[in-house]
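Table S2 (continued). Query chain:
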Amino acid sequence: MKAFVTGSTGLLGSNLIRLLLEEGFEVVALTRMLTKARSRLGNHHGLHLVQGDMEDVSGFAQDLQGCDVVFHTASYFRESFDYGDHWNQLKTINVDATIHLLEAAEKAGVSKVIYVSSAAGCVGIIRGGAPSNESTPFQEFNYKNPYFKSKLMAEEAISNFLKSHRLSVVLILPGGMIGPQDAAPTEMGRFILNFLKGNVSLVPSGGFPIVDARDVAQAMISAVYSGQPSERYLVTGGYYSVAEIMRNLAEASGRPVPRQRLPRFAVRLWAAIQNLIGRINGKKPYLPADMVRVMLSRQWFDSTKASQGLKTSYRPLQETIQDTVQWYKHNGYV
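Corresponding output:
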């Protein structure tokens, strides 16, 4: 089977490609920079690199010919946490380009597209502590986060596209991903690196729904065979407090957990001050404001649908963090 992968050098894309090759797929990997892709993905039999940009789908559309499935992992994400207005790029890449890709894939005869959405961005919160599932309506508050807004608009655009097209599209909604191969890094990767470098001075309240990127990649491959058209699947692992994440980071790295704890009522004020300082210094804090909102939302998910339909399973947090820390150390990040 031949697969086309966007976002090939990202955390999810690079882990996905490794799994695809291990399972005997022929892989066409889209990259903006060939040298970076060769460095991160290596030279493997069955791997073909294609230079292109999601802002110009027509420039690589011919490379979709002969592909059976498209895995769309590319997203304007990390950059959206920087200061400034990024909406034009968010909409162009995350919304408009997604539809252009679906159109090109259908024209090329692709049988199935696996699209990566966002659990935190596109699923709401059930008050009272119950876990959210795929049918939980999103909250209007999510539109205040530009990245989440772009993913909500992308899902709506996909839904409208499918009303008049026969292409099979499966939506995967992961939680906060961490894992090895996070070279960029993502915001969660930056958080881990700041801890490893001793730049974290306190333990804020709150937590995140965490999932290993390798487990998401495996779920995406399962979706090729058993994912139902137009269905959404939450692939989210467990919910972990920041304190629990830091304890695991400490065990994996030998660096102590900060002694100072910050209660929930003080976290927003602390985050506002840190972000103000960041704007003045031109340097992002280790927890950007939008990330803090997610951290304090207490959102967790019921991934039963993916467990049953895609046979998903999840690594223990300890294993994921151990592998991530070792990858960063081995590659000279710390």
